[in-house]
Design brief:
The termini are far apart. This protein is mainly α. It contains 5 helices and 2 strands. It has a single domain, classed as Rossmann fold, CATH 3.40.50. The protein has helices at 4-13, 17-22, 25-41, 57-64, 76-86; strands at residues 47-51, 68-72. The chain has a two-stranded parallel ribbon.
Amino acid sequence: MSTRKEIISSFYDRYDEEGRTARSRHGQLEFRTTMAYIHRFADPGSRILEVGAGTGRYSIALAKEGMEVAAVELVESNLAVLRENSKI
């Protein structure tokens, strides 16, 4: 029997999360809508914990805005993309 981590990792290893959130129209709309809600409650200097950070789309954007961000991600392939994107 597979563990939850194995099941989740298996799904995301076959799925382009970065493409969904950054390159698709619905992903772009989701990003803008979510960021608008985040900005209602968080300002530069806020401390953010993102659990299930995926490829870091929100974590990286919020850090660039001056927020202190800690990102937690279970899936190694997503974590690798997050680490690579955060170098930019």
